[in-house]
Amino acid sequence: MSLSPSTGSILAASVISRTKLIWFFVVYTFFILSGSTAASSEPQSVISQALAQGVNSDQQHSEQSEFGASNPLDPVLAGYQSQAERGDYEHAGKNTLTYLSAHPDSAEAHFLLGYISYRENRPDDSLAQYTLGAKLRKPEANDLAVVAMDYILLKDYFDADKWLSVATAWQPENALYWYYLGRTKYSENSFQAAVDIFNKCLVMHPRDVRTEYNLGLAYSGLGRDNDAIAAYEKAIEWQHEDIRKDPQPYLDLGILMLAKDHPDKAVGYLQQAVEFDSLNPKAHEQLGRSYEELHDFAEAESEFAKAESLAPNVPALHFELGRIYKKEGQMAKATEEFAAYADLNAAHSTDAAETPNPDHRQ
Question: 107-119 and 123-134 helices cross at what angle (nearest 10)?
Fold first, then answer.
């Protein structure tokens, strides 16, 4: 029997809701029974390429590594974890499922499968596995952090905040947990909390470029533009001699300059953002807007066209390119772009309205 799309959506939402309630009850029970101060007696979870090894070989500035799976005690699962950490998620997942069929009560296997699903961008499946594992034993701080990342993928920042807060309480020395809690606070528009957390991260992990420009974003959210500019400039300066540069502080500073009606200053930063990441549609879009403000419509057309080719399903990019064609007197092309804009608006939800900015923040 097939379900209508609306019925399927309702059932899916119900399943997710039940999973969240079960997960909260199971972990909260563990948390209360053990006491929040018991974290120090828990086995230390393993972060892949831990903070002490967080300097990228291609970059001179220190860069926080991402989450790894919690370290399994079973040597067989440890081998599957190694597969996952190498990016071989397909074989790691199949092997872990085979292991689970023989050891259905293995919390470690459920947690590892949850981690693999998270890495495969399947947050619902990941949460389901972490829920099953949490019924068998208390999760570690790293497990809670990955659960929080699942909720970030689902744009459920309330639950992400909740579990990252527990993870930082259990392992307050872990700068990576704090970083993502700061990002989550920013996504919740809790800008002052984000500022405080990012400053804490910088004490724990000095000269981290990513944390510094996120601090700038939080300052910008508070309307403290001068502090935001200083943070972006510092993030740019810290990677001055790096071979590979993170384009985000250039993009963020360019966007801020454009918002402050300084397109002449914005252009330079945005040109560098495009140079360091030519596949970022957001950077091309913002550079196009700067050129438009400077009445350089030929360059604006070029940048909007590049942005549109990289993100063809974003309605606004078709509209912006159509406006430029109209200003240039190319009415046939303008009409074509406006028609594409209307079609996309009718066919897509508002999720497609924002020009993507692929970066390393979440």
Answer: 170
